[in-house]
Amino acid sequence: GEYCNIENGTCPSGCADGYLGKSCQTQIPFLADAPVIQSKSPTAITLRWDPWKGELDSNMHIEYKVEYRLHQHHTMNPTWEEWNTRVRQKIQNIIVVRIENLRISTHYNFRVTPYLYVGDKIYEGAMSPVSSPYKTTCAAPEPPDIEQVEAMVDEDRHKALLTVRWTMLSESEVNCDSIKVYRVQYQERGAAAWETVLASLNT
User: Is residue 163 classed as helix, strand or coil in its secondary structure?
Assistant: First the structure.
């Protein structure tokens, strides 16, 4: 094996993997744990992770690159995309970042890579494990177009009836897993309140 200077930590062939500096005492940051979800919406997921706890000199700082991809449930060969803003570590508290412009009701994986900046030099640390798949939430779809409203009279029951016809929303228009029911509302002329009828998918 190689003998290093016990006083200043220097080694004839350089620092061990993961260390740098004149005395080889500065450790390049790494993340042992995957980022976890903090909150979610139809088009965004907020992640959090513990920052690097190692000591840094005054001329050093750490930034994190966040990447995301569609989970394999949605595509066979998902590609990683970098979130457009790198996160700079300012204090050693939990780091939180919101990833936006995601697809509605869709699973994503995430990973984070730390970078150590020393003056004008940049050192890439070890990437975090890939996160579990996290799913954005559903969103209310746009209402369908009404194709026909037909009025008729039920003479046997002495009632007026209205028949409303519309086209079922397609899967791409639903913005969620499925539609359970359609809500049809109508209002009598001069009335302030709306009446509601729930129509099942078979109606």
Answer: strand
| Structure tokens that stand for 118 in this block | 């020393």
| Number of Cβ within a 10 Å radius of residue 74 | 13
Return the closest-CA partner of residue 50 out of 111, 112, 94. 94
Q: How far is CA 74 from the centre of its chain?
A: 15
Q: Which amino acid does the sequence have at 39?
A: S
CB 58 within 8 Å of CB 52: no
Is 173 in contact with 141 (CB distance < 8 Å)?
yes
Q: Which amino acid is at 15?
A: C
pLDDT per residue as tens digits for the range 160-186: 888 888 888 877 777 776 777 888 888
pTM recorded for the entire structure: 0.74
Nearest-CA neighbor of 60 among 32, 21, 23, 87? 21
pLDDT tens profile 19-39: 888 777 888 999 999 999 999
